[in-house]
Design goal:
It is found in: Cytoplasm. This is Translation initiation factor IF-1. With 73 residues, the chain is mainly beta. It has a single domain, classed as Nucleic acid-binding proteins (OB fold (Dihydrolipoamide Acetyltransferase, E2P)), CATH 2.40.50. Helices cover 7% and strands 47% of the residues. The chain contains 1 helix and 5 strands. A hairpin with a 6-residue loop joins strand 4 and strand 5. It is globular.
Length: 73
């Protein structure tokens, strides 16, 4: 599935699990597990608990996603 097929939603990181998996609470109150996308790994962008992020969620499995962007505020 391409990144264009993902639904982009905003959320806040509330937990960092082992293996690079982040727990994120979305704006609508749903909790999802997400990993960093390839470009964030390539450019060594760090995400910590409390950061606001954009998450690409698959329409087929809404419990998993990719962190696409880290917001400054």
């Amino acid at each position: 599935m391409a990144k264009d097929d993902l639904v982009t939603v905003e959320g806040k990181v509330f937990d960092l699990s082992g293996g690079g998996t982040y727990s994120i609470t979305l704006e609508n109150g749903v909790a999802v597990k997400a990993r960093l996308c390839g470009k964030m790994k390539k450019f060594n962008i760090k995400v910590v608990v409390g950061d606001r992020v954009s998450v690409g969620v698959s329409p087929y499995d809404p419990t998993h996603g990719l962190i696409l962007h880290r917001h400054k505020f």
